[in-house]
Amino acid sequence: MSLRTQPAKNNRALWLLYCVSGIGLFFYFYYFIEPILYFTAQEPVFFFDKFYFREFTTWPGGLLEYSASLLSQFFYYPWLGSLMMAVIFFLLIVSLRLTIKNTSGMDASFYVLLPATVLLLSHCNYKHPLIIDLVLLATLLFVLLYTLIKSRLLRLAFLLVGMPLFYLFAGSGLLLFALFALFYEIAIRRQIGVALLVVLLSLLLPVVSGSGLFVIRMKHAFTLPAFPHAQPKLLMVFIYLAPLIMAIFLFVAKQKISFAPAQKPLWRGAAAVISLTIFFGIPALTFQTNQKSFWKFTYYSRIGEWHKLLDLCRRPFPASPQVECLINRALCHTGQLGEQMFRYPQNYGLNSLFLMDDVALSTPLIRSDLYFDLQHFNESKHWAHEAASVTGETCWNLQRLALIYLMVEKKPAAQLYLEKLKKTIPLQSWARYYAQFLQDDKDLKDDPTVAPLLDNLIKTDFLSFVRNPVLDLQNLVAENPHNKFAADYLMASLLITRQLQKFVAMLEKDNPLPRHYQEALLVYVSQVRDSNVQLRDYRIAPETIQRFRAFQSTLEANQQNRLAAQKALAVNFSDTYWYYLIFHQKVSES
């Protein structure tokens, strides 16, 4: 297949391919990736504020990072985020083609999708920073502009003026530009003097910046913003160098290959199909669905879509304390915790309810949300502040703090966070709505969402310990017996920690019991002689008693073989408390 420059008459076919790629990218991001999950995973911070902008002028590449922060807000809106990514990739593909053509003397045509595939593959990671895309795009456009200048003197002038400005704007993108410019000047233009100037400026500018011009470390003068923290360095290097590698490959191929079968329509059509298949196929085939599932669980919990969250459990989902914690919150919000809790995995003891361990950066905000559900607002505020110290002043961190301070009538603090939220994009309207309650003539009790919570503000002080959540729950229920969320969580905690005596002592005798409560009561009565506990005093469904007898019968029939018993009972009883009690390995809560 020929790698030579294609005739001008084929340009329309190429542009059609690029347009198809752009449209395909929109639907790929909208339906397959779902941009809101980027926002959920990264929680990008941005404010329309002059002081916030000034922060980004204090290091090279800060202006491009500011642009990335702004554009990352569009991930909050599915169609807008998808459109933005489609446009960015379209510009990347077009600039890739023109840049490679100008630097190698060869038209990459369909093959330009191959280096773009590397970047698209990286986007399968929801932590992928948008700044990487922008550094690559800005560099390619700068290289393209440079290669359009034919005069040697004008290129020298461009380097002397343009490279400092580009370094100020794109930081370490300058080093990638330097590699392209070196290849262009040595291989195409054969101008060693110009190449030496490129080398000199690409080293001098970062050294001067790191030596005192900017308050940054020397290594950051060479790496910011192209190499964000906690990103795989090898992958980023490959993303940045893929276009240059292709340009060099095509340049070498131009010297060696002389046949031209790709000029035939059949060959060109095959090349287009293969390129598109690789471009979309490899990222789709290597995509980790568990990662997407995790962030969908997190997102639905953020917006309170509890039924949608539980619907995610119909498909395989990641086994992690965060996910199990969110599932249990959803069950409690939908009134199913006592009925369906053991239908879902409970593999981490109390961590499945409370996230006692710091397992991820998202842990503090998940804790804050949970304590807010429990109406333990002081502890929710504490963990929201912790979240802000870990992930920054993100929209959801500020939202939680603003609402809590408003509820506890600390209006100056609430105003501080609401004013910040007014300068964001996603929660600007929310902030303006709740800002009206800062006025004396507006009562928060008029808000239907918050009003029910105001009656449950804790009036008694008590110490709170994340490692001992059961004690917290007991205090919350003692403070307000009508706090159903806390009461349900207390009962669930006693079940999951096998404290059946305390559990049974708290059961109500007059009302129907949830299924798992009935199951626990039957176990307790069958194992403990307690004259104060009689089954006739409780409302237990006949089918629960029948299932318990069937469970005992199957267990006794396989009492010599634990694995056989577990396998036999899993068929009909894996969703019961009995099965959890016997076959689930006890987790240490210390």
Short description:
With 590 residues, the protein is mainly alpha-helical.
What does this structure look like?
This protein has helices at 11-33, 36-42, 50-55, 62-72, 78-104, 113-122, 130-147, 152-170, 173-189, 192-213, 218-223, 233-256, 265-286, 289-303, 306-311, 321-333, 337-340, 351-354, 363-373, 377-391, 395-407, 411-422, 428-435, 451-454, 469-479, 484-496, 500-505, 515-527, 542-557, 562-573, 577-583. The longest helix has 27 residues, at 78-104. Helix 4 crosses helix 7, helix 25 (469-479) packs antiparallel against helix 26 and helix 29 (542-557) packs antiparallel against helix 30. It is mainly alpha-helical and 590 residues long. The chain folds into 3 domains: 8-287, no CATH class; 292-454, Alpha Horseshoe (Serine Threonine Protein Phosphatase 5, Tetratricopeptide repeat); 502-583, no CATH class.
Instruction: Specify the overall morphology.
Output: elongated
N-C termini distance: 66 Å
Could you describe the largest sheet, including whether it forms a barrel?
Answer: none
* Proportion of strand residues: under 5%
- Provide the number of structural domains: 3
The radius of gyration over CA amounts to: 31 Å
Count of distinct strands: 0
Low-confidence stretches: 1-6
Average predicted local confidence, pLDDT: 92
In DSSP terms (H or I, runs of 4 or more residues), the helix count works out at 31
Question: Could you say which structural class the secondary elements and strand pairing correspond to?
Answer: mainly alpha
Helical fraction: 55-70%
